[in-house]
């Protein structure tokens, strides 16, 4: 049975981050999976935003092209935090945003039926 604890408050964003990194980080706070983030997940997200900022600023300030390898690395970091639909599907997690009487349960994570059956649930 899952253990539910107190939701971890996201650390503040860095004012120096690139606007895209800030937008991505802010979007995490509104995402359903964020209710399960641990402090280490938020720090991983901060690191991802930092790397994203460095790469985007290098691209803009030095007129360098975005490097495919770095974009792939950033995308992978984002995927590790389950911030993309594809990453959630690979782990068989589904965000359920149906209205509910309990506002704290508005965005819950539901395990898909076939995943439950694998574990005899």
UniProtKB/TrEMBL annotation:
Organism domain of life: Bacteria
InterPro entries registered for this protein in UniProt: Terminase_7
Protein name in the entry: Terminase small subunit
Protein source organism: Rhodococcus zopfii
């Amino acid at each position: 049975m899952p253990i539910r604890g107190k939701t971890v408050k996201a650390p503040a964003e860095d004012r120096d981050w690139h606007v895209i990194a800030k937008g991505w980080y802010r979007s995490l706070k509104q995402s359903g999976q964020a209710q399960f983030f641990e402090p280490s997940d938020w720090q991983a997200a901060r690191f991802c935003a930092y790397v994203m900022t460095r790469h985007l600023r290098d691209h803009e300030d030095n007129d360098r092209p975005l490097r495919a390898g770095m974009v792939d690395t950033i995308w992978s970091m984002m995927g590790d935090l389950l911030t993309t639909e594809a990453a959630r599907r690979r782990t068989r997690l589904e965000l359920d945003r149906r209205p509910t009487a309990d506002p704290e349960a508005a965005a819950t994570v539901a395990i898909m039926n076939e995943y439950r059956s694998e574990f005899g649930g």
